[in-house]
Automatic annotation (TrEMBL):
InterPro entries listed in its UniProt record: Aromatic_CoA_ox/epox, Ferritin-like, Ferritin-like_SF, PaaA, PaaA_PaaC
Domain of life of the native organism: Bacteria
A GO term from the CC aspect: cytosol
Protein name (database record): Ring-1,2-phenylacetyl-CoA epoxidase subunit PaaA
Gene Ontology biological process terms in this record: phenylacetate catabolic process
Sample GO molecular function, one term: phenylacetyl-CoA 1,2-epoxidase activity
């Protein structure tokens, strides 16, 4: 019976046995994984856009080469994750259509513009820094293909964060104008980076069930607090400040207390009304349309090869 199958399934989860594509799994487990993994993949692909915006304008050949490598990495991360989504029985076309049609979510953070070169440093340091905390946790997620995808992703992420911090470190040691660029970028990316971890635990739709199924190993607020503690220390090395007057080390809890996140802004951006939502989807839609002939040619080539094999 389904009850027995569910019991065996939960025992495997409790015994830290990875769930693999061919294993029986509750429909709701499959459904929430398709939701989360496809949105994670979309985030990687959309995340290429704010950074790609500066590849032609990087201040040196070295910075251009590093940024090119990073944006290429994000494309690869997206492919690992789309492949993990397919192991759950959802086609790549369906997943891509969900993004292009505006139905699927992707991380809110990528709906903000990269206005200066300092933003490329802030994105690497803060956005990839937040993503690393989340993705290190996801290395231990209960679904095998998703866990293995995150293990590969994390191998490349620390370089992403370090190169971002280094960009800001150089700016922070530069002219007064460069120092101002550094501080301005931190001011604009700080609060949106905190929103990456999702709603407060009390408002999180999926956390409880995702924790029982060990999809999620740490709560949204736990990871957010870990992130604030880490960045509140690192920002001192830059000689810069975080735009939060309530940020204060709490001796009792050994955590940094911090101010209230603007949840109206968060839900507004998630709903599609952020500064760049329309631009991001238009760019993806155009790329998808312009790439249709490549997909058609690849399919025709594959059909010919299959027909030749038949002969
Ligand atoms: N942006 C957009 N939507 C968000 C969000 C965000 N920052 N945070 C939460 N949401 C959505 C959730 O998707 C969910 O909506 P849905 O039911 O339609 O999917 C709703 O808000 C409620 O949130 P929950 O906390 O209940 O949702 P989850 O349990 O899924 O937790 C999460 C949210 C922690 C983001 C989780 O989905 C997750 O770990 N996702 C995979 C990792 C990921 O996407 N990381 C961020 C981007 S990747 C990146 O930055 C790459 C880097 O290399 C550049």
């Amino acid at each position: 019976s389904v009850q027995e199958l569910e019991k065996i399934f939960q025992q495997k989860i409790d015994q830290e046995i990875k769930i693999e594509p061919k294993d029986w799994m509750p429909d709701a487990y499959r459904k929430t994984l398709v939701r989360q993994i496809s949105q994670h993949a979309h985030s990687e692909i959309i995340g290429m856009l704010p950074e790609g915006n500066w590849i032609t304008r990087a201040p040196s050949l070295k910075r251009k080469a590093i940024l090119l490598a990073k944006v290429q990495d994000e494309a690869g991360h997206g492919l690992y994750l789309y492949a993990a989504t397919e192991t759950l029985g959802t086609s790549r076309e369906q997943t891509m259509d969900d993004l292009i049609s505006g139905k699927a979510k992707y991380s809110s953070i990528f709906n903000y513009p990269t206005l200066t070169w300092g933003d490329i440093g802030a994105v690497g340091w803060l956005v990839d820094g937040a993503a690393i905390l989340n993705q290190v946790m996801l290395c231990r997620t209960s679904y095998g293909p998703y866990s293995r995808a995150n293990i590969r992703i994390c191998k490349e992420e620390s370089f992403h964060q370090r190169q971002g911090f280094e960009i800001l470190l150089v700016l922070s040691q530069g002219t007064p104008e460069q120092k101002a660029i550094c501080q301005d970028a931190i001011n604009r990316w700080w609060w949106p980076s905190l929103m990456m971890f999702g709603p407060k635990d009390g408002e999180s739709t999926h956390s409880e069930q995702s924790t029982i199924w060990k999809i999620k190993r740490k709560s949204n607020d736990e990871l957010r607090q870990q992130f604030v503690n880490m960045i509140a220390e690192q920002v001192k090395i830059l000689g810069m400040t975080l735009p939060d007057p309530d940020l204060k080390y709490n001796e009792a809890t050994k955590n940094y207390d911090f101010g209230e996140i603007d949840w109206n802004e968060f839900w507004n951006v998630v709903k599609g009304n952020g500064p760049c939502n329309k631009q991001r989807l238009d760019t993806r839609r155009k790329a998808h349309e312009n790439g249709a002939w490549v997909r058609a040619a690849a399919e025709a080539h594959a059909a010919k090869r299959a027909a030749r094999k038949q002969q």
